């Protein structure tokens, strides 16, 4: 058997399915999510928090309007199972106490999602959110088919992207950094939801620690390892203890990765990694196109950007895109 080429790293498939830190680390490496102290994505999320917090209540309202728009998702708030298609005796209402309670948790969840991701607890919580939607880790089980979770995450990403890009005062470079960082954490959350639905890796199920799921079921909403991590501002802003790496003792209890590297080594290798396409845009014409992306409105111009709404401005009707007149003028033209 040939040895691995110099720049190729080994990834152990079993570990991807049995160790949360290893899985998260693989995803972070692939997505080039920089997780170390002062790393771009972590800084972007922490710095962007104050802007995102302002739009979270609006996004939560939009998500629940969406979920209550179709019977198949609205039912889940009565049946707790999207596979059951019988209608409830009474449909939940957006103003009802149950949805108000759920909205509060989604607000807290989105605040957590946009907070410091450098502790393993952060990814454990995202994993727990995935787990709780497949009938596990809850005294009163809940099952939501993956299609609704993926769609919901896509909708949240779209709304956040639009809101951040439309922000009137943020510098373009900061907008880019926040949108990129949020996109990466949302895609890792997507994996941590999808993995509970997929049959890939089920041959490793015997290694799944059932007691941990039971322990999680015993924990109240918003708790990880006995710590309250939601709805508490101080815990979101707490010290940077454990910051250097997202890879710490998790389900597998390992402090090295499947590649046998320490978190420090991982961080160093992330720091030297470069986009394979960087440096390819060198012709004057290409540089001109790139410069156009640094456009920003002159402060004297009274440019009032539209309030971020997240409401789609384009619609496809009979295969044609309509409502283009709803779009603002293209600043790059
Ligand atoms: C982006 C996708 C979603 C996210 C991030 C999400 C997040 C959450 C969170 C954070 C909680 C509980 C908080 C906790 O225990 O810490 C929760 C509970 C719940 N979710 Fe989701 N959710 C998503 C999609 C959905 C969808 C699509 C439905 C229904 C169609 C749904 C139905 C519920 C219900 C009914 C509960 C209550 C569970 C209980 O009372 O034990 N969720 N969700």
Automatic annotation (TrEMBL):
Q: Which Pfam families match?
A: Protoglobin
Compositional bias, Polar residues, is annotated for: 280-293
GO MF terms held by the record = heme binding; oxygen binding
InterPro entries xref list? Globin-sensor_dom, Globin/Proto
Q: According to the lineage, what is the superkingdom?
A: Eukaryota
Query: Which stretches make up the Globin-sensor domain?
Result: 23-202
The ranges of region (Disordered) come to 211-294
Q: Where is the composition biased (Low complexity)?
A: 241-262
Protein name in UniProt: Globin-sensor domain-containing protein
This protein's species is: Exophiala bonariae
